[in-house]
Design a protein that fits this description.
Blueprint (H helix, E strand, L loop, with lengths): L8 E4 L4 H17 L5 E4 L4 H7 L3 E4 L3 H6 L6 H7 L4 E4 L6 H10 L4 E3 L10 H8 L17 H11 L6 E5 L11 H13 L3 E5 L8 H6 L3 E3 L4 H10 L2 E5 L2 H8 L4 E5 L4 H4 L6 E5 L12 H15 L15
Parallel strand pairs: 1-2, 1-4, 2-3, 4-5, 6-7, 6-9, 7-8, 9-10, 10-11
Helix pairs in contact: 1-6, 1-11, 7-10, 8-13
Length: 323
């Protein structure tokens, strides 16, 4: 059994949800190399996700210890804290003299400071792995996160009141440029309901102002969930539709089938790491406030159709082909 803490590796990681999911293969590789679980400093709201998946011993990167990395004269306790680790892999502070000097001093040269983004057009997950000396094609990578049975059961009780094929739709993203037409999402949702499916619109903190608008159109809305509740809900949905977003990466990681929509970003660098999640490029791209052409809506429905043939609820017949 792995030790839960101790002299293993410390990973310092400033990324958001999607970035963190792309780090999963790297965390698993570091776990394989060391006797103790990796320790991880990451965004505080993501700590429960790492704890749920038992990937690392996670603590908020907002802790004061992170500031010591950038200090010209760090306190003596900094050496005691960082020196307790056999090595450090930091994805913050590349090119900052203080950071590189401090971590190497504290670990006697066994620390490395990596750029957060790749310098060449490769998938972000590939970049993180290459940073620790592993070359692995993104097409062969998966970032799997296990949702405990009790969390899945709670999500089923809360969100699956009717035994209908459930489409979970996330029309948001971290930036408006990556959000496909709201009207397009709405029309896909309406057609899904007309064909007898169940639907939930999942909104994150960035989309909370849209709750009333979606609710006024008669859609069931899930909002205000923490990251483990979102993971559990994603894991019990039959199909998923979303943009290039952290939620789409999480959906793929917990095993959801579905479609992630891409426009201004390149799926070769950002696609979710799962064969179950289809990365679809829409060209031309209809921005959030624009109307989506009928051919684009049909194309999205066809991609959902393909994904639906793979799901556990109906392995033989495509739901979207039914009347």
């Amino acid at each position: 059994m792995k030790r839960q803490s101790g002299s293993g590796v410390l990973v310092v990681f400033p990324g958001a949800l999607g970035d963190l999911v792309c780090l999963v293969p790297t965390l698993r590789e570091l776990d394989r190399r060391h006797d103790a679980l990796p320790s991880l400093l990451c965004k505080g709201d993501l700590v429960p996700l790492i704890a749920m998946a038992r990937l690392a011993m996670a603590q908020p990167i907002e802790r004061r210890e992170t500031g010591w990395l950038f200090s010209v004269q760090p306190p003596q306790e900094a050496a005691a804290y960082f020196g307790a680790f056999s090595s450090i892999e930091s994805f913050t502070g590349a090119g900052v003299d203080e950071v590189e000097r401090n971590v190497r001093k504290w670990t006697r040269g066994t620390a490395r400071v990596h750029p957060f983004r790749p310098s060449q057009p490769i998938h972000l997950a590939e970049h993180f792995l290459r940073s620790i000396g592993v070359v692995h094609p993104a097409d062969e990578l998966e970032a799997r996160l296990e949702v405990p049975a009790e969390l899945r059961a709670a999500a089923s009780r809360r969100w699956r009141g009717r035994r209908l094929p459930l489409l979970l739709m996330h029309p948001g993203s971290g930036g408006d440029a990556k959000r496909w037409s709201r009207e397009g999402f709405r029309r896909v949702a309406e057609r899904w309901l007309l064909r007898g499916g169940g639907l939930i619109v999942l909104l994150g903190a960035a989309e909370e102002s849209e709750v009333d608008a979606w609710g006024a159109e008669g859609f069931e809305v899930a909002v205000g969930l923490d990251v483990t509740e979102v993971a559990a809900l994603l894991s019990v949905a039959d199909l998923y539709l979303g943009n290039d977003s952290g939620i789409s990466h999480l959906a793929a990681a917990v095993g959801a089938f579905g479609v992630a929509l891409f426009g201004p970003t390149d799926p070769r660098s950002w696609r979710p790491l799962s064969q179950r999640m289809r990365a679809m490029t829409l060209d031309p791209w209809s921005a959030i406030g624009e109307a989506a052409p009928e051919r684009a809506i049909h194309a999205v429905e066809r991609e959902l159709d393909v994904a639906s043939t793979l799901t556990r609820w109906d392995p033989d017949t495509s739901f979207l082909e039914r009347k």
